[in-house]
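### Sample
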Amino acid sequence: QVDVAAMVQLFGYVDVTDSGFIVAILSIAFNPLFWNVVARWEHKTRALSQVFGSPHAACYCLGAVILLLNCVRSHCFTEAMKSQPKLEGWDWHWTYYSGLAISAVGTLFVVSSFFALGFTGTFLGDYFGILMEEKVTSFPFSILDNPMYWGSTAIYLGWSLMHASPAGLLLTAVVAISYTIAVLYEG
């Protein structure tokens, strides 16, 4: 038997029909779908490489678009959290600092992944024919598969705890589900 009382209580704080909440869900789901579709299209057609004159220029442009979309996603996530009620029992220093620590670990995974992979490794360079000499196995890849995805998820989880936001926790679950699907699709 699963005790769903906590989940029922959590959903009692979240208005899933709020337009900002819906926009946040759509932006969370859109991002990995977008970059996977565009990258596979580029791999099959080389259309972006032709338009931009080189695979590197095309990859850098796609990377810039992905970064912009991530900023939009984070903004929508934050606005959805702010428009929904806080969980009063979590609005304590220990929750805030726990969230801060989780976000810091997530940031460590994201930043160290970026440094290990470089820009083109991070932003789907392999779909543009920009291949690394060998698979990256150093930190954080030595301790976690897909550390950028799970680091990003941890950042959102920490952000939600810092704001004592049930809506943020639910949106973090959507982030985790979206990345899980992306990992299956990319694999």
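The chain has a mean pLDDT of 93. This sample (Phosphatidylethanolamine N-methyltransferase) is used throughout the tutorial notebook.
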